[in-house]
Amino acid sequence: MNELQKIQQTAVSLFAKGRGHQPRQEFKEQNVSPIDPVPQEKILEVAHKDESGLIDYHRMEGSSVSAIDKVGINNFRLPMQFRYKDGTLRSHDVIASSYVHCPPGQGAISMSRFCEILTVEAAQGSVNAKMFRRVLGRLRRDLRERPTDHLFRFAFLKLKFKYALKQMSLKSPNWGWQYYDCELEGVEDKDSKIRMYLTVYYQYSSTCPCSLSMAKQYENAFAQGETAEGNGIANAHSQRSQAKCTVEYVPDSDFCVEDLVNLLRQAVPTETQSLVKRVDEQAFAILNGQHPVFVEHVVRRFRYALNQEPRVQDWTVAVEHWESLHSHNAVAVMRKGITGGLQ
């Protein structure tokens, strides 16, 4: 009998014994190296089996002496429903990431359960704080090996998606779709307290105040005959810019993507446009002339707007101007600054 036949015979013998789930032994720290190769006979001698009789290797305690901060999945894609403020229900393609804290003594986490929980709960209705509570609670509860085990210390869920909003043209009676890259996150801790976070990426046009003032200075000097340089017309440099704004909001409030977008629009109204006719283009030029900004101006405007919203408990904002004058970018970051808050 060759070596392969011996292994196969051993496997058949093990299955014939009909070993089912064994009670978990009292956990004791073992001096076992986690990098030692696993012998073939150990793979076949796993005592735990699932309901169908297949070996359940991830339940083998082995050398699982250490807790793991985060174990889970990312880049899991699925459609999810979002209810807009006007009552419209729309489906968005979502990329989900989900993790739990893995306690010492649990060999591994069943990754398929993450997918199953997300798929089932996504089919129950629209994305909101209640859905997050259901998912996070199930992650802490259903991923345990046994119902008698302690709940996991925390569970985390992040959803990435593009949120489409109608945007009216500045002057013509037209409108288009503006898409916002968004991230919705929820964390449930050991005390079952949930914290909710929303991130929106907001793109706008920034006109340099220094460049604008020097352009007007030149035009006035040319008109008064003080200089013959150029043709009397100077243009301030402006560029597409982006703000990444993350807020922690009251979990059971009705705060949503549209509310955060409206706050950002109020603070910096030179948002990039989705549909533009000539009359709108001129209106956009006028609007930029009314709101010339450095990155410092922008974060301070956002600070004022966000601090006026009672449903926003904490916030952080990072802006970047993709300079048309320079080969580098201008950046600024500001936080609300509460103790233990967003960084």
Any descriptors?
8 helices, elongated, eight-stranded antiparallel β-sheet, single chain, Urate Oxidase, alpha+beta, 343 residues
Describe this protein's structure.
By secondary structure, the protein is of the alpha+beta class. Among the domains are: 17-26 and 33-63, no CATH class; 198-335, Urate Oxidase (Roll). It is 28% helix and 29% strand. The protein contains 8 helices and 8 strands, in the order ααββααβββαβαααββ. An 8-stranded antiparallel beta sheet has the order 1-2-3-4-5-6-7-8. The protein is elongated, with a radius of gyration of 29 Å. The chain starts with a helix and ends in an 8-residue tail after the last strand. Mean pLDDT is 87; it is low at 10-27.
In percent, how much strand structure appears in the residues?
Answer: 25-35%
Query: What is the CATH-assigned architecture of the domain at 198-335?
Result: Roll
- CATH superfamily membership of the domain at 198-335: Urate Oxidase
CATH class wording of the domain at 198-335: Alpha Beta
Strand order of the largest sheet: 1-2-3-4-5-6-7-8
Write down the oligomeric state. Answer: single chain
Briefly characterize the structure.
The chain has 343 residues and is α+β, with helices and mostly antiparallel strands. The chain is built from eight helices and eight strands. Among the domains are: 41 residues, no CATH class; 138 residues, Urate Oxidase.
